[in-house]
What we know:
The protein has helices at 20-25, 50-65, 67-74, and strands at residues 7-10, 13-16, 34-39, 42-47. It is of the alpha+beta class.
Amino acid sequence: MVKEITLRQVGGSVGATIPKDMADRFNLEPGDRILAIETHAGVLFSPYDADTVEALAIAGDAAKEYRNALRKLAQ
């Protein structure tokens, strides 16, 4: 499902409001944490999961360490 979300100024940050029907489907409530993950196609929002955060950090470290090898593999 695709929903248009309008960004708003919230103090010094920018905030987004998730439509109620979507928040209900994903059991999201005010105060819940979600992850915003940058992808090649845009931003992916995902429910917060500490294991996911740890896995993304490990993957980021590996990508930095093996940057040259990964570039060669991508050719």
